[in-house]
Give the backbone structure.
Amino acid sequence: MTDEVMKRVPENAPDWTLPEDIEVEGGKAKGLPRRTILMGAAWSVPVISAAIATPLAAASITPTLEFVGGPYTADACGNTAVTVRMTTNGTTPAPGEPVQISLPAGFTWSDGTTAPRTFTTAADGTVTVTGLSVPPTNGQLQFTATSGTLTAATPITVSGATGSIKNFAGNVTLPAIPTGVTVVEIQSGVQGANGLQQLVSFLGSDGNVYRANSFNGGGTFGPWAVSPAFPGATTLITASNDATGITWATDGTTVKNFAGTTLPALPAGVTVKQIDATTGSGGTDFIQVLGSDGNVYRSTGLNGTYSAWTKSPSFSNTTKILAVSEDASAVTLVSDGTSIKYFNNSATLPALPAGAQIVDIQVTTAADGTITVIARGAGGFVYRTTGSGPNFAPWQTSTAYPGAATAIDINNNSTDYAWVTNGTAVKNFGGTLTTPALPGGVRIVDLQTTNVNGTNFLQVRGSDGNVYRTSSNATTGTFPAWTKSTSFDGTATDFYVNNDQNMNTWIAGGLC
């Protein structure tokens, strides 16, 4: 008999056992129907009544913390309120207790600040906070509350926002996005070696792909065009970031370009988990996908005619990572998490340090043909190797944030500068160049870098919903304080940096 059930039996009760048809789970009886108790009881009826009431009290001796009235809903750009209740036993209010409330991303207190705040429960055990500002972003977010060892959480669904895209300086706003559509993912590229035609594409919350072009290299863009590829059903997009700017889309089972040209069918039952594309030096498009069956597939084409998908012989059915050099070299690497090979299995890179479990790979090709590969392990270490063909140097381990790296990036425009972050600042692979920390304890949630005429430009999206930039000449190595973009102050949801010499940075956010 479980301890929980024993506590419910009077000390003077005669021999009594838990009927065999009572199911026990986690040390507690799963439901004691009244009929069963009456059949097994040998004491008087009044005692039985007491035994039935006792479990209700026993189940309520633990203090509780909960949000009242959740889950919540709110209008974007409006105000909302939340109430938290604390009890000593599930029913009795717990007055005078501290409760810390944390806001969802993008929400602010009535004074515009965002840091968690601690309140004291009233006589009825509640804390009610009003005047919370709702950001211009749609989706489901979460409030959390803590008091000692107690925790509580509840979702809030925000609706009514419309997406918008601006440049980093905030002086170029792309055409208005259809009402109610927000930006899920943004991609960008240029066409022509001089980069005069800029192309910005995004996947909308309505499942459509949109693209706007600027033909003069400036800030004037035409209206958004809607791709006919997968109306209302697109799941992923990518753009060739190599002076072609071609946008590719998938609904999870088929791949098309923005114009709707359909690539051959993938093997039956395979769905697309990741898609990457680039254009080779001869104008051939290389499209690669990581399939749900643990294989990487490639289709190539020129002038709208594409080959059947070729399955990589590397890591058959066990591939976890796909990395493509977004330049004319079209180098494609695949990994099962413990080793790295070329797509065609023509070479295996040197063995990684013992125990390394790779979670991210970045690759680029320099103007002289040297391939640089960086890999981040699950243990927070970052590794690098360089070479070409089948010949690569042994892996080096970065001295930047050893055991604490949270993200990596490599300048993918024929320079091989590799960058590492621990979530608060950024260093180069060698650990010799360091940026200042982001202000106010803001965490880095996305890192993108490029190099323009010898100057390294680092951009990050912070946990506060802002995009920041700092830059340094490669010879001086001194990074100034981060500059915060004026676009979507506190409500940026995504950003994209062109890995080319024009360094255009596009930021997505919301309007109401």
